[in-house]
């Protein structure tokens, strides 16, 4: 067994050597650094970053009612925390992939999810139903502490794992996994997500930038065109575009159920933001919904509520 492995490794080495210096047709991509705005070196720091194309007035425009009297997280969410959180993911391609239109579209898509999950808008609200994103930062009347037995992510005594954040998630396992991703002890301190908007945005961006399981794409990847569907994906109607981001983030809570309200509401937020950001909903892209998609991860453990 070991012998076989050594042989295989040697063969790989030989291939690498053969493909080595002489084969250098792939020119090395330029790497850049833009200090705090984009902590390179990264190819994604060479173009305009999210800081250049999405400014405070745009954020205010999207979330005009977040501090309205009926809101439930008054004074919590702001541009500064959004942009500070983004600093971690910008060098990895968040809002910095594919040129200006795609960059703006990705911000609209990410915030479309955030807006729809944290909205307290309703049909006849002033300003329209989509002006109320970032109105919540937590579940208001949790009926339980959402603690399940887990060896890897045991609950802390007294901690409550109800839904919190910008892309709210609940349960000790999700808090554990995402805390590990952020290197913040969310198992011990789940309350950070309702006390610190930078951490809340970071947790949401982590969800957007990472696959839920190995060998699956991230929402970022399916949206910006980094992902090639397999035959199985195509048969399951999972194709690049906004629709598949919902499949990844919510699974069968939202997808594969036909044209249900919860799905339509997320899409409407995305398109509303595209309009406000000057891109226009005519550029929403193909495969906008997931009404007929089979989900990557069938129910049981959706990471987002
Ligand atoms: C940088 O911008 C160019 C021109 O818009 C675009 O073609 C390229 O893909 C961008 N680079 C990255 C890393 O997205
Ligand atoms: C919020 O979290 C960020 C990132 O961990 C940290 O730098 C900042 O100091 C925190 N803010 C407050 C008010 O605790
Ligand atoms: C194809 O998808 C089905 C369900 O969607 C899954 O059970 C099966 O393992 C997948 N096959 C491959 C080769 O990935």
UniProtKB/TrEMBL annotation:
Disulfide bonds join 147-155, 255-290. InterPro entries: Glyco_hydro_19 (IPR016283), Glyco_hydro_19_cat (IPR000726), Lysozyme-like_dom_sf (IPR023346). GO terms for molecular function: endochitinase activity. GO terms for biological process: cell wall macromolecule catabolic process; chitin catabolic process; polysaccharide catabolic process. This is chitinase. It comes from Colocasia esculenta (Wild taro). Keywords: Carbohydrate metabolism, Disulfide bond, Glycosidase, Hydrolase, Polysaccharide degradation, Signal. It catalyses: Random endo-hydrolysis of N-acetyl-beta-D-glucosaminide (1->4)-beta-linkages in chitin and chitodextrins. It is an enzyme of class 3 (hydrolase). Residues 58-290 form the Glycoside hydrolase family 19 catalytic domain.
């Amino acid at each position: 067994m070991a012998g076989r492995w050594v042989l295989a490794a040697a063969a790989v080495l030989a291939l690498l050597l053969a493909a080595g210096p002489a084969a250098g047709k792939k020119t090395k991509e330029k790497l850049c650094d833009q200090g705090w705005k984009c902590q390179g070196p990264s190819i994604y720091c060479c173009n305009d970053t999210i800081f250049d194309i999405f400014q405070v007035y745009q954020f205010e425009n999207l979330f005009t009612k977040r501090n309205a009297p009926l809101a439930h997280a008054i004074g919590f969410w702001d541009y500064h925390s959004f942009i500070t959180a983004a600093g971690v993911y910008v060098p990895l391609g968040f809002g910095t992939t594919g040129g200006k239109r795609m960059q703006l579209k990705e911000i609209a898509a990410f915030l479309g999810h955030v807006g729809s999950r944290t909205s307290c808008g309703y049909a006849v609200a002033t300003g329209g139903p989509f002006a109320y994103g970032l109105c919540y930062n937590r579940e208001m009347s949790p009926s339980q502490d959402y603690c399940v037995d887990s060896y890897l992510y045991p609950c802390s005594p007294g901690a409550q794992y109800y839904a919190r954040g910008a892309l709210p998630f609940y349960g000790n396992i999700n808090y554990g996994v995402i805390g590990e991703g952020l290197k913040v002890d969310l198992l011990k301190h789940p309350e950070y997500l309702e006390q610190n908007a930078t951490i809340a945005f970071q947790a949401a961006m982590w969800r957007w930038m990472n696959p839920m399981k190995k060998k699956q794409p991230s929402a970022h990847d399916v949206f910006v065109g980094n992902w090639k569907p397999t035959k199985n994906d195509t048969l399951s109607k999972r194709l690049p575009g906004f629709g598949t981001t919902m499949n990844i983030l919510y699974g069968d809570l939202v997808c594969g159920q036909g044209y249900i309200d919860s799905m339509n509401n997320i899409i409407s937020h995305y398109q509303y933001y595209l309009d406000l950001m000057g891109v226009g909903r005519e550029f929403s892209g193909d495969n906008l919904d997931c009404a007929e998609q089979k989900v990557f991860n069938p129910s049981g453990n959706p990471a987002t509520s």
